Amino acid sequence: MLNNSTFKKLLFLIVGTGFLISCDSEYNSIGADIVDDNDHFGFIKNDGASIVAFSQKTNAVQSNNLPINPLGVFDNGIFGKTTANFVTQVELKTENPTFREVPTVDKIKSVVLNIPYYSTHIETKSDGSNTFELDSVYGNIENKLKLRVYENGYYLRDFDPSGGFTDAQKFYSDQNALFNNAKGQQLNDSDFAEQNDLFVFSPDELVTRVDGKTTREIPGMRLDLNKQFFYNKIIAGSSNLVNNNVFKNHFRGLYFQVEEISGSSLALLDFSKGTITMTYEDKKIKIVNGEEVDDGVQEKTLILNLKGNSVSLLDYSPTATSQSYDNLVGNPVTGDQKLYLKGGNGSVAMIDLFGGGNSQELETLRAQAISGNWLINEANLVFYADQPVMQNNFEPKRIYVYNAKDNRPLTDYLFDVTTNGAKPKYAKRIFDGMAKLTGNSDDTNRRVIQYKVRITEHIKNVLFKDSTNVRLGVAVTEDISKSTSLSLKTPQPAFTKVPLSSVINPLGTVLYGTVPVPANENKRLKLEIYYTKPN
């Protein structure tokens, strides 16, 4: 039977956990101050487990049909420079549209591409205008890019012919040349340079004034596209609009290509929310005595959605500061001093606990835990950032630990049902992995100190249920709610897949590994197990 003191400790833990689960507000502990890591209610601490952790380059990764895609150029300091292009199919919002009389291109009033940015509303001014702040833009938002939007000339198949058209077609991050060589006409050929040669990710709201009426929309990419092209492709080619299967072969989509001008700027975008709106004049009719009668002209719109198959295309370039990363070779036997995690076609780390597999160390610990009736209260993997190396770099807000052998989430991930209605990517607050930062919440230059990931249920299963001590993986993550994995183009002995959430994150971080670093011994990766024993 538990004594009164132990019961109080457990009651406090249960109540606290229940509060976390019930709370559904925005995850404000992003950048929270570090609490006293020694304050664990008097539990016994075991942090002497052997760990071998080493970095692994992913190289080219599967990158088709991602929920979020980068566009732009990003100089990521020690992680080199990435140029992110993008290709997508488009679909008719309404299949088999009818054109009554649109004889010339002059009848087309405009063709406008619109892709909303991730933004936060700041204020509404007295004149009704709004100010916004853009989210998920890296580099300098004021840096200009050369932006080209071409007709895509390469057909994005649904199924792989090499597998007898039974397997889904995979495309990879290093296939930019494939689409560049097949590109067609440039479509964003406006005389306004900010739509092509001097493009920026602007936080300004989009304002349209028509017939004295003002429409305000959130910030986004708004480009005027070539009217003659769309007249030929849509109006003159209307026989190919019968359904989207036919249409997607007739018009194979858009290829977005960027080029750096004066410094890097990259944004994460949900292209699937993008549209192309063609506004045109057509004959208007009315019905008189059951017959169609001309009734002048009317303005109509045809909408194309940026949906269907898509591919994120990532070209990596070494820089003067990326030598350590470029020469990275992980050591799976002794482990590494530093762990390099980078999203996109980047790198992850592998972790072997207790010496790996069914080791003697693990068997000894199992025997101690079982014979001692240990009650595992908490188990964490604690990672420390290499702050001197990362001080001038953008840092990821979160990392993700997973079962690297089976490419599956850990039990702790699955058991954590905490949510965040405003920002779902900040859910799983108990599983955590969020960055803990220096300073206070109102400081302007906070840096990452530590990431902590709770793996309590995983350790319980390994110690008490003879679960396999599988190799773990750790990666940066853009969205913790995405737990699926994508294939490496070239599978490696240590792993064959990488988390989708890492592929869509452009950032990287350097963490201390498991080999001692002079003067930083206390920052080595640790497994902390807190437990109680019956009296």
Spatial separation of the terminal alpha carbons: 9 Å
Please give the largest β-sheet: 7 strands, antiparallel
- In the predicted model, the low-confidence regions spanning at least 5 consecutive residues are 1-37
Q: Please, what is the average pLDDT?
A: 91
Helix content: 10-25%
Fold and architecture overview:
Mean pLDDT is 91; it is low at 1-37. Helices cover 15% and strands 34% of the residues. The N and C termini lie close together (9 Å). It is elongated. Strands 3, 4, 9, 10, 14, 15 and 18 form a seven-stranded antiparallel sheet that branches. A five-stranded antiparallel sheet has the order 1-29-21-24-23. A five-stranded antiparallel sheet has the order 5-17-16-6-13, with helices on one face. The protein is an alpha+beta fold. A hairpin with a 2-residue loop joins strand 16 and strand 17. The longest helix is centred in the N-terminal third of the chain and has 19 residues, at 4-22. The chain has helices spanning 4-22, 176-180, 227-235, 244-250, 323-326, 360-371, 387-390, 411-415, 456-464, 500-503; strands at 44-46, 51-57, 69-75, 81-88, 91-92, 108-116, 119-124, 130-134, 137-139, 145-151, 206-210, 213-217, 220-224, 254-260, 265-269, 275-288, 291-305, 310-317, 338-342, 347-353, 375-384, 399-403, 432-437, 448-454, 472-476, 485-487, 497-499, 508-512, 526-532.
